[in-house]
C-alpha cells in the first residue's frame, strides 16, 4: 500500500499540471482574441487611410476611382489597379504593387501612372528595410524615388545601373533599390498587359 502511494500522488500532480496548463492556454487564447477584435478595426482603418493618402499622392487631381485586382505577368499575388477619372476623362492609374526581393522581405508600393503610362509619382506603403539605408526608398527619407517621375519605361530602363538600367541605386542599399524597381516594373507590366490605356 505504501509503495503505491507515491505513484498515485505523481498521477495526481501530472493531472493537475495538465489541467492548469489547459486553463492558462484557454485564458491566453481568449485574451488574444479579445485584443485582436478590439484592435482589428483601428488597424484596418489606419491601413485604408494610408492607402487613400498614397493614391492621392501618386495621381493628378481626380474625382472618382475604379478598382480592379489583376494578376500581374510576374509575381504570385495580384496587384490592385485604381483607374482615376475627372468627370469622364481618364487622368491616370494608381497601382498597388509589391516586390518580395527586399532586404527585409516584401515591400508594398503605390505607383501612379499618367494615361500614356509615364510614371507620375510613387509612394511606399510598407517595408521592413534597414533604417538609414533601404528605407531611403521613401521620398521622405531621400530623393531616390524622384528620378522615376515623368519617366516612361521605353526611354528609362527600369533597372539599377549595376544591372544595365537607368536607375541610380541608393548608396549601400542596392538590394532595396532593386526591390523598389521590381515593384515599379510589376506595376508597369501589369498596366501594359491590361492594354486599356487611352
Describe the structure.
With 198 residues, this protein is of the alpha+beta class. It has a domain of 136 residues. Strand 1 and strand 2 form a beta hairpin. The termini are far apart.
Summarize the model shown.
Helices cover 38% and strands 23% of the residues. The chain has 198 residues and is α+β, with helices and mostly antiparallel strands.
List the helices and strands and how they pair.
Blueprint: H1 4-58, E1 64-70, E2 79-86, E3 89-102, E4 105-113, E5 119-126, H2 174-194
Antiparallel strand pairs: 1-2, 2-3, 3-4, 4-5
Q: Which features characterize this protein?
A:
198 residues; alpha+beta; five-stranded antiparallel sheet; 23% strand; elongated
N/C terminus separation = 93 Å
Order of helices and strands: HEEEEEH
Number of strands: 5
Class inferred from helices and paired strands: alpha+beta
> Average pLDDT across residues?
87
Order of strands across the main sheet: 1-2-3-4-5
- Residues in β-strands, percent: 15-25%
Poorly predicted sequence stretches spanning 5 or more consecutive residues: none
Question: How many separate helices?
Answer: 2
Radius of gyration: 25 Å
Percentage of helical residues? 25-40%
Q: Major β-sheet, in short?
A: 5 strands, antiparallel
The 3D shape can be described as: elongated
